[in-house]
TrEMBL record, chain A:
Stretches of the chain forming a coiled coil according to its record: none
Protein name: DNA-binding PadR family transcriptional regulator
Organism taxonomic ancestry: Bacteria, Bacillati, Actinomycetota, Actinomycetes, Kitasatosporales
Pfam families: PadR
UniProt keyword terms in alphabetical order: DNA-binding
InterPro entries: Tscrpt_reg_PadR_N (IPR005149), WH-like_DNA-bd_sf (IPR036388), WH_DNA-bd_sf (IPR036390)
Single Gene Ontology MF annotation: DNA binding
Limits of the Transcription regulator PadR N-terminal domain: 7-77
Organism: Streptomyces echinatus
From TrEMBL, chain B:
UniProt entry tagged with the keyword ATP-binding: yes
Residues covered by the ABC transporter domain: 10-230
Organism: Streptomyces echinatus
UniProt cross-references to InterPro entries, sorted A to Z: AAA+_ATPase, ABC_transporter-like_ATP-bd, ABC_transpr_LolD-like, MacB-like_ATP-bd, P-loop_NTPase
The protein, known as: Putative ABC transport system ATP-binding protein
Record CDD domains: ABC_MJ0796_LolCDE_FtsE (cd03255)
Assigned GO CC terms: plasma membrane
Alphabetic keyword roster: ATP-binding, Nucleotide-binding, Transport
Pfam families: ABC_tran
Gene Ontology molecular functions: ATP binding; ATP hydrolysis activity; transmembrane transporter activity
Keyword hit for Transport: yes
UniProtKB/TrEMBL annotation, chain C:
Keyword set includes Cell membrane: yes
Subcellular location per the Swiss-Prot or TrEMBL entry: Cell membrane
Transmembrane portions of the chain: 30-52, 197-221, 253-275, 295-316, 337-355, 367-395, 416-437, 659-678, 707-733, 745-767
Pfam families recorded: FtsX
Descriptive protein name: ABC3 transporter permease C-terminal domain-containing protein
Originating species: Streptomyces echinatus
Domain ABC3 transporter permease C-terminal, first and last residues per copy: 204-316, 663-772
Keywords: Cell membrane, Membrane, Transmembrane, Transmembrane helix
Amino acid sequence: MSIGHTLLGLLESGPRHGYDLKRAFDEKFGHDRPLHYGQVYSTMSRLLKHGLVEVDGIEAGGGPERKRYAITDAGITDVQRWLATPEKPEEYLQSTLYTKVVLALLTRRDAAEILDTQRAEHLRSMRILTDRKRKGDLADQLICDHALFHLEADLRWLELTAARLDKLSEAVTR
Amino acid sequence: MTTSHPGSLLTAHDLRKAYGPTHALDGAEFSIHSGEVVAIMGPSGSGKSTLLHCLAGIVPPDSGSITYDGRELTKMSDAQRSALRRSEFGFVFQFGQLVPELTCVENVALPLRLNGASRKDAERTALGWMERLEVDDLKAKRPGEVSGGQGQRVAVARALVTGPRLLFADEPTGALDSLNGERVMELLTDAARSTNAAVVLVTHEARVAAYSDREIVVRDGKSRDVERAI
Amino acid sequence: MNTRQWARDLAVGARFAVTGGREGWVRMTLTAVGVGLGVALLLLCTALPNVFAARHKVEDARYDYTYSDKVPPKADDTFLIAATDTVWHDVDVRGRLVEPEGKRAPLPPGVDSFPGKGEMVVSPALKELLASDGAKLLRERLPYKITGTIGESGLIGSHELAYYAGASGLKLTDSSPVHRLTGYGKPDATPEKTDPVLLLMVLVVFVVLLTPVAVFIAAAVRFGGERRDRRLAALRLVGSDSHMTRRIAAGEALAGALLGLVIGSGFFLLGRQTLGSTELLGVSVWPSYLDPSPGLAALVAVAIPIAAVLVTLLAMRGVVVEPLGVVRAAKQRRRRLWWRLLPPLAGLTMLYPMIGKGHENGDFNQYLVIGGVLLLLIGITALLPWVVEAVVVRLGKGALSWQLAVRRLQLSSGTAARMVNGIAVAVAGAIALQMLFTGTQSQYTKATGKDPGRVQMQVDFSDRKPLSGVEREFTGTKGVRAAVALAISEYGDARRNPENSNGLTVGGCTALRELATLPSCKDGDVFVTRTRSHYTSSSNADEIAVLKPGRKLYIDPSYDDATERGIEAPWTVPANVRVVDAREDSLQDANSLLVTPAALPAKAVPALFSDGVYLRLDPSVPDSREHIRNVVARIDPLARAYSWSATEEDVKYTSIRTGLLVGSAFVLALIGASLLVSQLEQLRERRKLLSALVAFGTRRRTLSLSVLWQTALPVGLGLVLATTVGITLGSVLLKMTRTPVAMDWASVLTMTGVGAAVVGVVTLLSLPPLLRMMRPEGLRTE
């Protein structure tokens, strides 16, 4: 999962302070693992360096300095490219997919499109595995089946999420 | 958008079909080439089966066009469409398709007999297909006496017996376990490929869809032909 | 296994039937309506004896003839009455002229007060008829003022047409149809001894009509049975054993049967009202006549629930309900023939001892007759499944629709046979009865010797009428082509107590030509025929010898022992008397002496009695007969006008035959309905399969044909069996009545044709739903 793309996506709805970003991230995606502020700081530095965000203003006052970040056009393009690229079908990628879907909803992009693209990619993998299975020996078959069942589980999750997009959208944009 | 695709066997454009207030199809697109296996996927009630029924000329759509081999299906009479289904299409369904009082070989021979073949010839051809699907030992049994997987293979044999150019399969493994289901899919796709028949496969199972060359997703009566979208 | 266990299981089943959701209700309603129809029919049948008794009672109570020679003297409590029955468009109208002779004269049954002269009291149906637009001619014929209606106690049915009209000056003479009575009612209502053959017919009609109803009820109990059985698998899953399951199934059927009893009683009450207000084949009754005999009604109420339980238990024998589904005992044992032959053979054995009893040696044993006929007919229901199975197993080759049908029948020949049983029983019974009727027809149908091609109507006057005037009255009437009038009298060779006496017939030349072949004729001629009828020797030499020209004779001579004195008109046999040949087809064949009016002395005219006016009608004039009856009513209200027909049937024989027709119509309609229900149920079960078959391009024609074959095959077999049994039974019945056995192929064909027609109609009616089910929408999964 890419924290950089996620933070970028969060900035699409408007400039934020670093600390706000961490809070928003934790609230939406960090269910069991909240982000360290250090991670935010280092990520934002990297993004600044690549020109994907810019500093919108600095708030002086008590406590640490508070920079306000805003996304650049290049940043928006980067988010778009990331969302549109299917993930390599592999195990445990739900969290990335989830993040993508929520971000798409937050940024009013077509989340269903993301899921469809991902499904197509999954099916492509499954076709390859199925083909290998048909040509291979029993060992091949068993190995392929294992992978196929996992991919199928992912696909089911994709289906379920697709069916619940409306509800999810309601929840995240509240 | 064009209504015909060069080289495609069956093309559907902007299909709409309503059952009462429900819009089963609401602007569906589809195309398939000879020898291609296309899976129609989507959640329950999304209109998958209705799309298949329209494509096969079983149900006429309310609007839209379906072109099969250069002919417009929606302009054919019921009798013409029936004749087309008898001679050019094959069907496999999930349930209730074998006639319980006929023996398995008689069931397989049924489409040939519908086309006017003699009983003897029809049953000889039928037996050949049953051999290919590894169910020839069931020929004298009634459908009630064979297992689900065997019955489904008999059904596949029956769908292929006329040498159709287009095979429609609606959840063909829906009632089977994984092993039986996959075996049926293997036999079905192998047989279809060997005769260069196109297969329209309605399924909600990814592992079944994985036997296809590409998939089309139906959601709320709308289908996007993925191949065309790219 | 104890009674409590039984009762509990049955109760559980009954509860399932009631709480089974929508489908359960539909199933129970089907059963209940089917049973209800059967029950209603049974109750109506049990009420039939009552109907006949009740009609008889009224007929006896209003009886107003006397055969007694002694006429009571005119008194305070006497009245004069004369029948003036007429016919209105083939419907009988009972008419009476009454004239009370004193204050205490009794009123006819159902009448409150005597109508005055020129007034009448009418039955409600006649009142309605007279008020209708088309009854102008009838109003002219009955020109009386309606002052009241006849009550139920004076009528034999709600649609009887009857009136009592007030009269004065009715003449009570020897020859007039007027009677003087002191009261109504048959003086000695001795029960007539019923003709044993007629009784046999009544018994057989009852059995033949009721057996299909019973078969139908048995089938109705199993309406929706196959689905019900499937649901029972769930019961097995939760631990009921197979016996319990069967009893629970029986309990469900029992609930349906009980509801059927209730519905049937409702149908019966409805039918009672309807039948009470309608007319069927000229017979109408009052609702109160249709009271079932309590004993028979109780029998129906007890027998039907028991039958429901037994039939279900029996049907479930062939069904194995396993926890995960219902198996129709896949490898059914081939049906065995021997025990199926027992009932018909037993039936024949019961009938055999009565062969040849006929009319002569009297009574048939009622129990043996009923038992024998019943067993023979029930035997069909036992034999038919075997026959269907045995035949169907050997079939197979043929067109696809044929193959589909045959294979289906092979798989469930029992269901098919059950469907056809009712029809087969009804047809077999009907064929047997038809044979019995046709065979005995000659015994109950008399040739009248009248040729309706020559004369269509005859009018008999109540008293003397001048010849010429009468003819003129009718010749002028609409629709009359020709009218000839004949009169008769008597002559003797002495004024009083003649030694030789004979009848003579008087008529114009046209009239006399209807009796004999006349070389020439003019008014004033006299003829005598060479032959004479009604004498042991047909040669007329004696009478010709008496009628020598110049011989002095007396017309209407007197006799010492007669109450009235004759006219005693002297008449000399004229010289021109000629001997002629009587026509073979003479209108009237009693008298040999034929005289034209001018040949008689004027003094003799009062001695002439009208011997009828014979009318030839113009068939193109629609109401000619009504016009004639009106003329008759005007000239002589007491005259009788009637149409000629070649034969006349015994009234009782006719009513039994009518009863059979009405009953058969009901029964066949009922069976047709049940066929339709089971057919539709079968189709509904195969809905998905039908849709799948249509999907891969099966022609609708192929499927429709296979449905037709599927019904036609068992029906055809059923009809063949029914014909065999029917002919056997018919022959036995004819032998019993000592009538030569003759095949009446026309009626066999008619009956089988009717049976086949019922099937045709049922197939036709089930086609629309079939076509609807073949629509691809059936493929959609709910």
